[in-house]
Each structure stands twice: as C-alpha cells, then as structure tokens.
C-alpha cells in the first residue's frame, strides 16, 4: 500500500472517530440529568437499634436527607396566557364550601329571606359572583346567595396550572429529625381524592382554601410561571382531627426518642414551631405547604373562552429537606421571629441549609403577599386572610370529600 493510500485511510479513521464522539455528546441519555422528586430527599430509616441502615445513628445536628446531584434543566420560556380576572379560570362552575355555619339568602342582601342555614363544610357549586356574594347551588339542589368572605374555593378549579401533590392524602412524608413518626409517616391522613373533576376532565385532588387567599396564590403561580417554574402544592386545608392525631403521635415519638425530643426542645425552638397544637392557618384556609419545580414541558389548555398552562413534566428544585420534616433541619431562619408580622422575618438571616430553590420559592411567595414561617421552608401564611378567618371563627372541624365542579 503506497503512502498516499495510508494517509487517506488514517484521515477517514480520524473523521469517523470525531463524528462518533460528537454523536455521543449529543445523545439524549447523556444530555442532562433531571431531579426526581419522588426519589430524592428521603431520610435513611433508623432500624430497631436506633441506627440507620448504614450502621450509623442519625445525628440531629446534620441533615439526614440525601439530596441527589441536580443538573439544571435547560431554560424554558413559558407562554403564559394573560389573566382575565384574579384567577386563571372564572369562579363560575367552581366548587366552594361554607367555612362556617352561614345563612343561604334568597338575594345578595342580608335583609333578604333566609332560604336555609348551611352547616360548616356544606359543599356547593358557584353559579355567579356579584360583588361580595356568590350565587350557589348546594348538593341537594338548593340555590341562593352566600357571602364569600367566609367561603373556601377548590383551588384546582381556578388555578389549574399548579402541580397538586397532596401527600397527606395518600402517603404522608412527615418525619422528625429524619425519623418516621409511627402512625403518620407513609399513612393517608385524610380523604382528599384524587376524584374525577368534570370541569378539568381529569382526576385531581380536592384542595380547599379561602377565596381571598386563592387570589394571592394565583399571583405567586403567575410569578413562578414567568420564571419557567411551577408551584408544587402539598397541603392547603387540613381538618382539625387530622392535625390533633399527628400532634399526639409526634409527642409519643418525642417521649420514646431522645434525639427527636432534644432537636425540637433544646434551643430557641419549641414544638409549636413545627406543628400547631391548637388551630393552625391550615384549618383557617390561609396557609400552604409548597415546593418548587422547573418546568420541562407544558401545553396550553382551553376551557370555554379561557386558556391556562398545564404542566406536563417538571424537575423539583433541591430543598433543605423533604416537605413536612418537623425539626430544625427544615428551618427558614436562624432564629424564631413573630409569625404574625409581615416583615419581621426580613431582619433575621436565612438558615445555612436554605437552598437556592427554597430561596426562589420564598421570593415568589413574598412578592405575592405571603409571609414565610421561620421554622419551615415550605410553609407560607396569608396573614390578612388568617386574621379575617380568626374573626369569623373558622376552625376547620369538618372534612371536605366531594366536589360539584362544572365547566364555567
């Protein structure tokens, strides 16, 4: 073989190798990793000896949650349809509930005839909104008017772009210092679906909140969507009985596990910073437990004359812990500060464990009008809504297990 042919053969081999490497570099399976929220943030489970399955006892001063390497998905510009009202979809056709016992009036006037008295938790479908009133139809076909200041609305009916993952309604993620809480962790704590939602033509969770608070949540989601992100909502309303059961079982764990007890009680924090022992803003319909995801794919869905973003795939940002870690592992701030102040938290440094994703989540909710809780990175309060709910004596003693949602 002459010299020219040898050079040509070597050149062809170089081209083939270069082409192969370029193809491999663009292969989908090595392009980038996606954070899987269902495989991440899981604590190593202690065994009967009090040690983790790796043989080491949990250290309450360290975070036992193993967060995988997160590779940021490529930026996605989301074409967000403009809002035609305070919510993504009209309230007409949405499910609502009476949050307290209230009269059903024949007209949008407290001087009009009272048709009947609704019990707290009475479900209805909203026919029309007029100022401070809703014209509604109950599940027994009674129609009339209620003052919506004391009413809950089903969030998926009016903010369908949010990812609803009500973990306490299927398998609670709740832990304390990384330890499972017997009778709580992995259990269904209450009924909230998913149920078939005729309005959305799919199965979805039942997610009640104060009507006024739902408008702030919509603002937060619009800010997130504009940044290519989505709120992942883990809990809104939670009934009083479910709360008290979790309090009792956490106290039992504290009595039997010194690490759990000392993490909660030794220092500036107390039990009530990690779980309400009486009425919380969740019972009032004015608080949310949330996380944040980067949108990977979406589509625009039309309902009637209105359109909204439906998230098809997302990657959850790494967070300090899994949601509902009831210990100082989940701190937002380095020290306690009044949870009734809209701005006092701004004077306190963030906890070292706060991740960029948790800080971005806080930014969206702060700009929308919510206040973070010093002890839980995932919890945000609507203080104005909570104050109104307190005055109205909304206590959350009822279960909400069905919807009447229809098309707008």
Q: Which range best describes the helical content: under 10%, 10-25%, 25-40%, 40-55%, 55-70% or over 70%?
A: 10-25%
Runs in which pLDDT lies below 50 for 5 or more consecutive residues are 14-57
Number of strands: 20
Return the string of H and E elements. Answer: HEEEEEEEEEHEEEEEEHEHHHEEHEEH
Mean pLDDT: 85
Description of the structure:
There is one protein chain. With 408 residues, the chain is an alpha+beta fold. It has a domain at 157-392: Muramoyl-pentapeptide Carboxypeptidase, domain 2. The protein is 23% helix and 24% strand. The chain has eight helices and 20 strands. The chain has helices at 3-25, 155-158, 211-226, 240-256, 258-265, 281-284, 356-368, 383-392, and strands spanning 42-43, 65-66, 95-98, 102-105, 114-118, 123-130, 133-138, 143-147, 151-154, 163-164, 175-176, 179-180, 195-197, 202-204, 208-210, 229-235, 287-303, 306-316, 371-373, 376-381. Strands 8-7-6-3-9-15 form a six-stranded antiparallel β-sheet. Helix 3 packs across helix 7 and helix 4 crosses helix 5. The longest helix is centred in the N-terminal third of the chain and has 23 residues, at 3-25. The radius of gyration is 25 Å and the shape is globular. The chain starts with a helix and ends in a 16-residue tail after the last helix. Mean pLDDT is 85; it is low at 14-57.
């Amino acid at each position: 073989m002459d010299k020219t042919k040898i050079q040509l053969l070597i050149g062809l081999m170089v081209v083939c190798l270069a082409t192969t490497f370029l193809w491999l570099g663009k292969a989908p399976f090595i392009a980038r990793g996606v954070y899987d929220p269902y495989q991440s943030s899981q604590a190593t489970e202690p065994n009967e000896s009090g040690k983790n399955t790796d043989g080491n006892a949990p250290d309450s001063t360290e975070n036992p949650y193993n967060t995988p390497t997160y590779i940021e998905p490529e930026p996605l510009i989301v074409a967000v349809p403009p809002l035609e009202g305070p919510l993504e979809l009209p309230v007409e056709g949405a499910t609502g509930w009476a949050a307290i016992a209230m009269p059903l009036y024949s007209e949008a006037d407290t001087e009009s005839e009272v048709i009947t008295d609704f019990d707290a938790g009475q479900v209805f479908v909203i026919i029309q909104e007029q100022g401070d009133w809703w014209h509604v139809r109950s599940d027994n076909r009674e129609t009339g008017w209620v003052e919506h200041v004391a009413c809950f609305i089903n969030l998926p009916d009016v903010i369908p772009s949010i990812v609803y993952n009500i973990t306490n309604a299927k398998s609670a993620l709740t832990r304390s210092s990384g330890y499972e809480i017997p009778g709580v962790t992995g259990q269904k704590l209450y009924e909230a679906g998913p149920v078939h939602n005729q309005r959305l033509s799919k199965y979805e969770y039942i997610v009640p909140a104060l009507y006024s608070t739902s408008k702030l949540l919509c603002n937060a989601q619009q800010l997130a969507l504009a940044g290519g992100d989505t709120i992942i909502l883990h809990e809104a309303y939670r009934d009083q009985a479910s709360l008290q059961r979790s309090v009792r079982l956490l106290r039992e764990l504290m009595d039997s596990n010194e690490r759990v007890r000392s993490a909660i009680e030794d220092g500036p924090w107390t039990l009530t910073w990690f779980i309400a022992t009486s009425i919380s803003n969740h019972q009032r319909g004015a608080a949310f437990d949330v996380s944040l995801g980067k949108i990977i794919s979406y589509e625009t869905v039309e309902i009637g004359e209105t359109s909204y973003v439906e998230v098809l795939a997302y990657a959850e940002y790494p967070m300090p812990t899994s949601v509902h870690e009831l210990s100082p592992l989940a701190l937002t701030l380095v020290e306690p500060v009044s949870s009734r102040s809209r701005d006092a938290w701004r004077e306190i440094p963030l906890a070292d464990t706060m991740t960029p994703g948790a800080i971005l989540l806080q930014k969206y909710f702060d700009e929308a009008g919510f206040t973070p809780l010093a002890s839980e990175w995932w919890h945000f309060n609507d203080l104005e809504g909570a104050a109104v709910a307190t005055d109205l004596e909304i206590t959350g003693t009822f279960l909400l297990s069905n919807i009447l949602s229809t098309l707008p």
